[in-house]
Amino acid sequence: EFSWDSNPPDPAGVPAKLEQRWVAEALYRMWSAGVSLVTWCIFALSGSSWLAYGLILQAPAIIIGNITFVATTVPVVMLLLRRLHNWPVSAAVVVPLVATLAGIALLARLPAWVPSSLGVICGILTTVPQLIESISRRRAGLVSEVSLATLGLLLAGQALWLSYGLARPDVPMIITNVIAVTVTSGLIFVEGSRRREHATEQS
Q1: Each residue's pLDDT tens digit, 18-50
Q2: Interior CA angle at 57 toward 69 and 183, to 5°?
Q3: Separation of alpha carbons 116 and 149, rounded Å
Q4: Residue 164, phi then psi, degrees to nearest 5
Q5: From its phi and psi, is residue 142 left (phi > 0), alpha (psi between -120 and 50) or beta?
Q6: Mean pLDDT score of the chain, rounded to an integer?
Q7: Nearest to 3 by CA among 17, 15, 18, 20
Q8: CA 82 and chain centroid, separation
Q9: How far, in Å, CA of 169 to CA of 3, rounded?
Q10: Which residues, 6 or more positions from 53, have their beta carbon under 8 angstroms from its beta carbon?
């Protein structure tokens, strides 16, 4: 296990393998559902921002969690550049990798509020539009293809990060994950209620 509070060790820490499995499973489901390249780039930027923030604060939990996130999202960006935009293999691999490493190195040299603010913005950009789309589809009488299982996994991860932010305490992380948990909970409510209505209409 690694601790959500780096010093002293927390006996109730979240197992690293469990957190990694949740993140990887949620991201795989989003990739298979056809989430856009732009969204994946924002995910990678978000992870890079929070990784740089963790490096500035020397916070092991933030560093480990976001290394996992970046290592999962950047390869998907590479794959989409290759498959959707026909980039040469070398360019599809090198460009995202260099951009990510350069971004982390730059952000880690700036004041902590810069990467944390960027992380908050990225979090809003990747969650709020989906909620708006789901509400629009519900009003139009359409059933979204968003997986409730994926949303549940994301909500679990966001809740863990919110708990960590409250335990530190860490204001940027609290703000980001309050927004994320609120929006994801709203998504689950909207998607779940619409599907129950759809099932009732068909029965």
Answers
A1: 655 555 555 555 545 445 788 888 889 999 999
A2: 45
A3: 28
A4: -65, -45
A5: beta
A6: 79
A7: 15
A8: 22
A9: 15
A10: 62, 107, 112, 115, 116, 119, 172
DSSP code, position 7: S
Give one word for 8, left, alpha or beta, with left for phi > 0 and alpha for psi -120 to 50: beta
**Token output for 56:** 């500035």
Is 104 exposed, middle or buried, given 0-12, 13-18 or 19+ CB atoms closer than 10 A?
A: buried
The whole model's pTM is what? Answer: 0.70
Token readout for 166 is 């409250």
Amino acid identity, position 134? S
Q: Beta-carbon neighbour count of residue 176 at 10 Å?
A: 27
Structure tokens given for 103? 């971004």
pLDDT at 99 over 90: yes
What SS3 class is residue 6? coil
> What are 129's two structure tokens?
């539009």
φ and ψ at residue 11, rounded to 5 degrees:
-65, -20
> Which single residue is written with the structure tokens 């990225």?
122
* Contact indicator for 195, 137 with CB cutoff of 8 Å: no
Read off the pLDDT of residues 136-150 as tens digits, 9 standing for 90 and up: 776 776 666 566 777
Query: What local confidence, expressed as pLDDT, does residue 9 receive?
Result: 45
Residue type at 1 in one-letter notation: E
